[in-house]
Amino acid sequence: MRLSNSQLFIRGLLRAAFAACLGGALMGCEFFAPGFEEDSEPEMDVSYLNQRLDTSEVSEVFHSRRQKVGDLDFHYVEGGDGPPVMFLHGFPSYWFMWHEQLRALVTNHRVIAPDLLGVNLSAKPDDLSSYHIEQLVAQVHGLIESLVPDQQIVLVGHDWGGALAWAYAQAHPERLRGLVVLSAPPLNLFLELLATDPDQQEASKYVERIKKAGDRPLGARAALLMWQRAYEPLIERGKLSEEEGRYLLQALSQPGALNGAMRWYQANVPEPQQIKDQDFWPTRLASTEVPSLLLWGEADRTFVPAFLERLPAYAPGVRIERLPGVGHWPGLEEPERVNELLREFLQ
Asked: Which of 5, 223, 315, 342 is the most exposed place for a label (fewest CB within 10 A)?
């Protein structure tokens, strides 16, 4: 799609604004988000997913639901019947990032995709303790025990959702049939690399900017800047449609959602020189024997490739699939290949 000169000018301004805001950790950044209305209907993404299904038997396969875990209210989307698979999204995303995988697997599986803590339509507590990895694992465990009480489940996680999935497998291997992670090491391995590897320290400098940005309330305009960084390149490459991009922007712009997502960093990632033994959970060297698959985009620069060499110490027998030319979003960049690998693993 060719952009007009005025559109190119606006895009240039937004990119310049985003770069300036990152330099100031998004402090005080409030820019008008053209074409976005904060009161947009929040469930159009579920309708979109149902409309894209190739079925004449039922008009609605996916449903939006809520589940309490303790005092926290979680929103999730589910559909289908069969062996259960739960999808855990990363930053700065929400359940809809899995729309291609949900659509591909729903014919043979019960698929469940929650908004994790602080995100979109789920609870957004202010206290950082709720976002510590131990509590995040307990929340996923509560969801699994409530929604799938009598079956083992396969967890699929990306980015922060991948780190959470690894941690869950370390703590509750008996509840899992398998584990698939996209673009993320276990959190205890990441902290080890952050404490000792200069290349990972350089790659993770953005973390401190995110943590500082989360110290003040951020609204829809700051969310737009984060969206520009994460998703606009995918739209330009034809990996996301403009409609799909609007849903991702809408979720990121929910009141408190950007701050909630940033609390994951604030609660779990100390500065490299301040990492101590007690920061590793469940332990510094915790591992899992759960059958596992890592999907790794070779163009991803979020984590250093050294983690691939060290991963088997944390997941003996892990299978690693490298995806040439793929960046940090394999499920969006190469959905057909990811879906093929998921089906193969689930069988």
From this structure: 5
